[in-house]
Design brief:
With 314 residues, the protein is α/β, with parallel strands linked by helices. 38% of the residues lie in helices and 14% in strands. The chain has eleven helices and eight strands. The structure holds zinc ion.
């Protein structure tokens, strides 16, 4: 079992620490399985033998005898890329405030840009929060629109006609931010009353103080919330009534998307949101804590190349 205190705290130490294959295996095993005891993915057997030469476990159940690696059932599954590179890539992305492009990963760890792109999408999947806990206290809600490349416009127009505020060809995103707390963000199909009311109710505890702008779709939430509205046609702040927190988050998101990722297809936007919200929500932690938070979530998630193929690779 690896002790928490032995784990690296900086990128330089992480690269050194994870340069050893067996250390990587021991590390991931200790994070995904109780006491690092491997569980057979086929039959659930917990008594298995680690074969050091092949770096795989052999299931002890005579009916099964499956051999499996530490990558099985994780975002690393079926990837020929070594765990030393995977773990370095995770470290880089969770701690890069403005994100990191597949080109940077390609150059930094020595994989092709296409492989780096695929790795980043899998890591983003692990960054996706499974938390269903609602926000409470003072919560700001807002929507924004993410634009894309002109060459994709025809496809977007066909697939993502957005009714209401905003323009056709962009993807709408809803966000809720608890002041001094977490942010939740999600791609939405429309910005109408039905959609926004459903999002607010799903993400914000009833009885909370709710702050929005004057957009008509937010009207009628008074029954469940103490709803305060800031009219952006007139002013941006009135005492504690404003949506500056969520707007700062949008600014950060857009800077990352424009500066680092250049072009993002609507199909992939949900995962970029996961990446940005993860870093935001873990902002009080240090680099090691952010890294371990993602490693904890690598199991039970898979994204195959087929699921990603057919979409732009940037
Ligand atoms: Zn088995």
């Amino acid at each position: 079992m690896l002790n928490d205190k032995e784990l690296p705290t900086t990128l330089q130490k992480a690269i050194k620490f994870f340069s050893d294959d067996l250390t990587c295996i021991k590390f991931i095993a200790s994070r995904r399985w109780v006491d690092g005891k491997a569980i057979c993915p086929k039959c659930g057997e917990t008594n298995n033998t680690f074969m050091e030469s092949r770096k795989v476990w052999q299931c002890k159940n005579k009916e099964c005898k499956k051999q499996f690696s530490v990558k099985v059932g994780t975002i690393f599954e079926d990837s020929p890329i070594g765990l030393d590179k995977w773990l370095t890539a995770v470290w880089l992305i969770v701690n890069a405030k403005n994100g990191i492009s597949s080109y940077e990963i390609h150059r930094s760890i020595g994989v092709t840009q296409k492989t780096a792109w695929f790795m980043l999408h899998r890591i983003r999947l692990a960054m996706q929060s499974g938390s269903l806990e609602k926000l409470s206290g003072n919560v700001e809600c807002d929507e924004t629109f993410i634009g894309g490349l002109a060459k994709n416009m025809h496809k977007w127009k066909r697939e993502q006609k957005i009714k209401g505020r905003g323009s056709v060809g962009k993807t709408a995103v809803f966000g809720a931010l608890e002041r001094k707390g977490r942010v939740l963000a999600k791609v939405i199909q429309k910005t109408d009353k039905k959609t926004l009311h459903a999002e607010v109710k799903e993400k914000v505890e009833s009885g909370s103080n709710l702050f929005t702008d004057e957009w008509a779709s937010y009207r009628g939430l008074d029954a469940s919330y103490i709803h305060e509205v800031i009219n952006h046609g007139i002013e941006y702040v009135r005492g504690h009534i404003h949506t500056n927190g969520i707007e700062n988050f949008w600014a950060l998101l857009k800077r990352t998307l424009k500066g680092t990722y250049v072009s993002v297809e609507p199909f992939h936007l949900e995962r970029y949101l996961a990446e940005q919200t993860y870093r935001f929500n873990e902002r009080k932690g240090n680099d090691k804590e952010r890294f371990l938070g993602v490693i904890k979530a690598v199991s039970g998630k898979r994204l195959t190349y087929d699921e990603l193929r057919g979409y732009q690779t940037s």
